Amino acid sequence: QVQLVESGGGLVQPGGSLGLSCAASVSISRLKVFGWYRQAAGDERVLVAVILGDGIIRYADSVKGRFTMAGDNAKNTMYLQMNNLKPEDTSVYYCYAVQRTASGNDEYWGQGTQVTVSS
Known about the structure:
The protein has no helices and 11 strands.
């Protein structure tokens, strides 16, 4: 069982910055997949950024060059730095992880944190 606890988020003006954190209850080096999704009101949940087993971070085209994901293995925490925020970035942001088990892959989600970009 993996627990994911998010922090950060809030209200920011367009062009501003925010940082999100996701603390995992296990070593993040043990996770097969670790990253962030977001879901705007009335929309589906979509990928923001994710790191796979090959260590390469993949970003959604809509956030490339503005968002940066980085991990701290010592703290079992993944960070998402969001710069030059736009109103269309307004969403609930969810931390996501996949852990490989003997019976397959188990998926886990954080509780979500609201990011609102508005003047």
